[in-house]
């Protein structure tokens, strides 16, 4: 697997462009979110990005996207590993996510389906959970244990 240089933060414009190219939500993304976003490639035109929203012991994996030419290079896994390491260092015990297209990718990396009713209040209060992602999205969690 190729080594990927991962940095933070991407430019808002670059992040929005890459997310839009993959059909992912951007309506609530602001520069303030980018403190917990990581990218590979150039900040203005990233090859891949991953973002987290941290809520104490829980986090929402906000976005993970890799540009088409960089898929199947291990970049998605490298970005996810980086985000998970950051979350652990921040004291996060569980990462949650919503997906309509990548359930298999995440299940191979330790995420399991869970019921939306079991979401902690901090995750329920996010725009991603409450408004943006459809109710048909797979809701997944990866607990880190103690």
Give me the secondary-structure topology.
Blueprint lengths: L11 H10 L15 E5 L4 E10 L2 E9 L8 H15 L4 E6 L3 H5 L4 E2 L7 H4 L2 H6 L5 E6 L3
Quick summary of this structure?
By secondary structure, the chain is of the alpha+beta class. The chain has helices spanning 12-21, 75-89, 103-107, 121-124, 127-132, and strands at residues 37-41, 46-55, 58-66, 94-99, 112-113, 138-143. It is built from five helices and six strands.
Q: Return the average pLDDT rounded to an integer.
A: 91
Using the CA coordinates, give the radius of gyration.
Answer: 14 Å
Find the count of extended strands (DSSP E, 2+ residues).
6
Largest sheet: 6 strands, mixed
Spatial order of strands in the largest sheet: 1-2-3-4-6-5
H/I helix tally? 5
Residues in helix, %: 25-40%
Shape: globular
**Series of H and E elements:** HEEEHEHEHHE
Query: Helix/strand/pairing class, anyone?
Result: alpha+beta
Low-confidence stretches: none
Proportion of β residues? 25-35%
Report how far apart the termini are.
Answer: 30 Å
Explain what this protein looks like in three dimensions.
Strand 2 and strand 3 form a beta hairpin. 27% of the residues lie in helices and 26% in strands. The chain contains five helices and six strands; from the N terminus they run H-E-E-E-H-E-H-E-H-H-E. A six-stranded mixed sheet has the order 1-2-3-4-6-5. It is an alpha+beta fold. The N and C termini lie far apart (30 Å). It is globular.
């Amino acid at each position: 697997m190729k080594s990927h240089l991962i940095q933070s933060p991407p430019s808002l414009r670059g992040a929005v462009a890459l997310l839009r190219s993959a059909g992912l939500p951007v309506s609530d993304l602001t520069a303030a979110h980018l403190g917990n976003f990581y990218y590979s490639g150039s900040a203005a035109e990233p090859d891949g990005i991953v973002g987290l929203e941290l809520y104490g012991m829980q986090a929402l994996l906000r976005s993970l996207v890799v540009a088409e030419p960089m898929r199947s290079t291990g970049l998605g896994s490298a970005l996810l590993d980086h985000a998970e390491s950051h979350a652990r260092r921040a004291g996060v015990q569980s990462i949650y996510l919503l997906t309509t297209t990548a359930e298999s990718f995440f299940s191979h990396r330790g995420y399991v389906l869970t019921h939306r009713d079991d979401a902690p209040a901090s995750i329920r209060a996010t725009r991603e959970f409450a408004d943006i992602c459809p109710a048909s999205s797979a809701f997944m969690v990866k607990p880190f244990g103690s």
